[in-house]
């Protein structure tokens, strides 16, 4: 009887690499007493002539305010990311994360220029909404997508109007809208990569 060899498979390269970069940025933030997080892993309105302004529109999704913030986001990313990456492909997931980051960063910088934004919450909401649209038939909108939009995005819109916490509901809403847009884009009408 042959013994089976087991090995660890890097099965979802975009999801895993994204998670590792988030972990490294968090560790750097602790090591530098928050300097690297403020400098590279947060987005906020700054001079349009500063090149870091544009870099931060993407890199802020790697930064987190602490372990609880990091673990909350990474748990969802590690649960949903591999399924999404398998269905839509690594390159498409990478593009979806990039678009979601830029949209959330630009909206935050325009609407809340005095508030810094960091974390992958927008990416998480994009994945939650997109995951609800993974099984579909051409010409049909899954009820799960509609319910997730109502429950998650409706809750975030309510919190944006009435909650006084320090959570950026705008990033969540932008991520959810991006997830819905990607889900509708891929609903059998476009088989080509984005």
Report on the architecture of this protein.
- The chain has helices at 13-31, 35-40, 51-59, 67-88, 90-111, 121-131, 143-162, 169-186.
- The relative contact order is 0.13.
- It has 194 residues and is mainly α.
- The mean pLDDT is 85.
- The protein has a single domain, classed as Rhomboid-like (Rhomboid-like fold, Up-down Bundle).
- The chain is built from 8 helices and no strands.
Task: Enumerate the spans where pLDDT stays under 50 for 5 or more consecutive residues.
Answer: none
CATH topology, anyone? Rhomboid-like fold
When the domains are counted, the total is: 1
CATH superfamily: Rhomboid-like
Percent range for helical residues?
55-70%
What is the count of β-strands?
0
Summarize the structure.
The chain has 194 residues and is mainly α. The chain has one domain (13-186): Rhomboid-like fold (Up-down Bundle), CATH 1.20.1540.
Quick tags:
single chain, 194 residues, mainly alpha, Rhomboid-like fold, 8 helices, 0% strand
């Amino acid at each position: 009887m042959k013994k089976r060899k087991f090995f660890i498979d890097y099965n979802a390269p975009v999801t895993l690499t994204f998670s590792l970069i988030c972990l490294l940025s968090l560790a750097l933030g602790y090591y530098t007493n928050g300097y690297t997080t403020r400098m590279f892993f947060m987005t906020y309105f700054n001079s349009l002539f500063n090149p870091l302004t544009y870099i931060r529109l993407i890199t802020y999704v790697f930064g987190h305010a602490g372990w609880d913030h990091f673990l909350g986001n990474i748990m969802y990313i590690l649960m949903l990311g591999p399924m999404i990456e398998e269905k839509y492909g690594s390159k498409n997931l990478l593009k979806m994360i990039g678009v979601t980051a830029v949209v959330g960063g630009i909206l935050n910088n325009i609407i809340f220029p005095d508030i810094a934004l960091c974390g992958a919450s927008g990416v998480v909401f994009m994945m939650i909404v997109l995951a609800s649209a993974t099984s579909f038939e051409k010409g049909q909108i899954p009820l799960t997508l509609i319910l997730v939009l109502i429950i998650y995005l409706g809750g975030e819109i309510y919190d944006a109007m009435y909650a006084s916490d320090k959570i950026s509901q705008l990033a969540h809403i932008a991520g959810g809208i991006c997830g819905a847009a990607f889900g509708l884009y891929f609903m059998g009408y476009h088989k080509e990569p984005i």
